[in-house]
Amino acid sequence: MLTWIIYDISDDNARNRVAKQCQRSGLYRVQESVFLGCLESPRLSELLLLFETWIQPETDRIYLVPLSLDDFEKMRVVGKDFDRRLVTDQINELFF
After folding, report:
1. Using CB atoms within 10 A of its CB, is residue 27 exposed (0-12), middle (13-18) or buried (19+)?
2. Number of other CB atoms surrounding residue 68 within 10 Å
3. pLDDT at 70
4. Degrees (nearest 5) of the Cα angle 45, 46, 52?
5. Across the beta sheet with 28-31, what order do the strands follow?
6. Hey, what CATH class is 2-94 in?
7. Predicted model pTM
8. What SS3 class is residue 6?
9. Which H helix or E strand runs over 15?
10. Where does the chain have alpha helices with state H?
11. What does pLDDT average to in each consecutive run of 10 residues of the chain (96 residues)?
């Protein structure tokens, strides 16, 4: 399932941990604190548990937003877009 992960985390260490975990999970960095990519439900649950242990819930926030492929195709961007094929694994399919 396509998933947006968007965060606002005050502590540098926690923020770096979240970013690295998103990258390890194969997510594509869209902006500094925004990742997008395909995540299976078990992996999404794992990330939620990890993130909960790293942040301060009184001040920090992380949004995990599921997105259907149909909604993704309807998304519009003003300004420089990103390579949407990377996010949907279409490029990987070309090599298999």
Report:
1. buried
2. 10
3. 83
4. 90
5. 28-31, 34-38, 2-8, 61-67
6. alpha beta
7. 0.80
8. strand
9. helix 12-24
10. 12-24, 41-54, 69-74, 84-87, 90-94
11. 93 96 93 92 92 95 89 81 67 44
